[in-house]
Specification:
It contains 16 helices and 17 strands. With 416 residues, it is of the alpha+beta class. Among the domains are: 77 residues, Arc Repressor Mutant, subunit A (Orthogonal Bundle), CATH 1.10.10; 123 residues, Aminopeptidase, CATH 3.40.630. The strands form 5 sheets. It has a 5-stranded mixed beta sheet, with helices on one face. A hairpin with a 2-residue loop joins strand 8 and strand 9.
């Protein structure tokens, strides 16, 4: 029988286990990056940085006091043989702990099969040349590969140079790894040179269980179903069902029934104590978090709707005339409530953080909710420092003017 829990208990549990109560509270140290990465199993990478930071950086900032970008890069791109994190395809392009790699190597094998009937056969000579170049000359960037092999090929989103496309296929098949990034420019090296002590892949069924458990680690209260993007990379539904049954039978996952939420959900066995403790808590949670658009907290959008009453869609790829909110609007978490959205945008040349829009949920008044203005100010000032800007500008709306007046009085935010 599943454990029965209230919606309030579930919300509080999720916020606490996602390290967001309070936000930005892990020690200000590079080791905290590994704490977050190992908790979630993966951090989603996206190259866009309109608010001044990329998705995985914003995920880390939300949980680590004074997070500095170089901390993650130290674990990703340190000297070969010392790296604690690796970039690979999982739910999408993800950053995962190196100790979890044996569970993900089957993705390399599947990519080899897929590309063997495609680009790595059709452009076999290009692949051989790139591998020889990297093997003999060392780490090589995609720009150099594109110059050497400039013919265009159809590739995922749009046509691209055959050099870049082949390099990406070699990366997806585990032959090349990312040695470093220069901005969003990738520099590749041989995977065995970057990670000379790779552990062998797990047996397939064990790997299926490990990958599904990793997804549960990220979400924290995931069900057997949901949006397709939630299960990307985990195989067919029957494979997932078999792995889920096994994880429950082994005791790795505990089924729960949440008040008002359809279907069973599952909690990590190791987190049962935290779940039960949340049943007796009554003190309100404080602190505002600007959630990254692909933060694990928002992966399960059906759960956000049923448990938090929050209908979330990242509108960065939505045509402007169809958007309800902003191009890069971030969910606002206050305590254990999702209360609105904010769109911060960094102006590098002026060293300015501009808030392009603020939208609040129906029934939530930010000016009448005790403590919210102070908590939002603290979160916005933390973001300003995080993205290395000197001042903040707010929208010229009623709420924008009221927030500006409040923050000027107490000096909470460095306003223009």
């Amino acid at each position: 029988m599943p454990v029965l829990i209230s919606a309030a208990q579930a919300r509080r549990f999720l916020v606490r286990r996602h390290l967001l109560a309070p936000p930005r509270s892990l020690p200000a140290d590079a080791s905290s990056v590994l704490t977050v990465a190992r908790l979630f199993g993966s951090l989603q990478f996206d190259p866009l940085d309109a608010p001044g930071a990329r998705n995985h950086e914003a995920v880390l900032h939300a949980r680590i006091a004074g997070y500095t970008r170089g901390w993650c890069e130290r674990h990703l791109y340190g000297p070969p043989g010392t790296r604690s994190l690796i970039e690979l395809w999982n739910k999408s392009l993800n950053i995962v702990p190196i100790e979890d790699l044996p569970a993900h190597q089957h993705a390399w094998a599947k990519a080899r099969v897929r590309h063997a009937s495609g680009i790595l056969t059709k452009r076999a000579s290009v692949a051989d040349t790139i591998l020889h170049q990297v093997r003999s000359a060392g780490a090589t960037g995609t720009r150099a590969m594109a110059r050497s092999h400039s013919g265009a090929v159809d590739w995922y989103w749009a046509p691209t140079s055959e050099g870049r496309a082949v390099a990406e296929a070699l990366f997806e098949t585990g032959q090349l790894g990312i040695a470093r990034r220069e901005g969003n420019h990738r520099v590749f090296d041989l995977i065995e040179r970057l990670h000379p002590e790779l552990s062998p892949a797990l047996p397939e069924e064990e790997a299926e269980r490990a990958r599904l458990l990793s997804r549960h680690r990220a979400v924290g209260l995931m069900g057997a179903g949901g949006g397709a993007e939630l299960f990307t990379g985990l195989g067919r539904s029957d494979v997932r069902a078999r792995a889920l049954r096994s994880l429950v039978e082994e005791g790795a996952l505990v089924p729960v029934a949440v008040e008002g939420v359809r279907g069973e959900r599952y909690v990590l066995s190791a987190e049962r104590g935290r779940l039960y403790a949340c049943a007796d808590e009554e003190a309100p949670l404080r602190g505002v978090t600007l959630l990254a658009p692909l933060d694990p907290f928002v992966w399960d959008r059906a759960l956000l709707r049923s448990l938090f009453g929050f209908d979330y869609r990242w509108e960065v790829y939505t045509p402007a005339h169809l958007r309800r909110f902003g191009y890069y609007a971030l969910p606002l978490l206050w305590g254990d409530r999702l209360v609105g959205r904010i769109e911060p945008s960094r102006d590098r040349s002026r060293r300015r953080l501009s808030v392009r829009g603020l939208w609040f949920e129906e029934g939530f008044d930010p000016l009448e909710s005790e403590g919210f203005v102070d908590d939002l100010g603290a979160a916005l000032e933390a973001w300003r420092r995080f993205v290395d800007t000197d001042e903040v500008t707010l929208p010229r709306t009623r709420i924008g003017r009221a927030l500006s007046a409040a923050w000027r009085r107490d000096g909470t935010v460095a306003l223009r």
